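Re: that chain you flagged

S.,

Sorry for the slow reply, it's been a week of failed gels. I finally had a moment to sit down with the sequence you sent. For the record, here it is as I used it:
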Amino acid sequence: QVQLVESGGGLVQPGGSLRLSCAASGFNFDFYDMWWYRQAPGNQRELVARITRGGETTYADSVKGRFTISRDSIKNTVSLEMTGLKVEDTALYFCNTFIQIKDYWGQGTQVTVSS
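Prediction finished late last night. Pasting the structure tokens below so you have them in one place:
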């Protein structure tokens, strides 16, 4: 049973940093690409970052240079290091993977950037 469990969200001031983590289980983590998405109230879910099984990374233009995605094949986790946070980064952040034509999502972790 595929499970993705996010953690690390919270309230932070503009310019601050947070590190999100997603614990993956129930599948062979090394074989699959992993994504972080986010969804703000009233908005569609949007892609934030992707890391391939080989470690290649891509980012949304809005977070380039500020966010870093990484994966740990020992712990089966994918992380999102977020720096220089802006009010517009406020959203529910989700971990995602795609296995055999099916999307899997975690429950999300809330990030709120506010002074």
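What I noticed first: The two ends are 40 Å apart (CA to CA).

Talk soon,
D.
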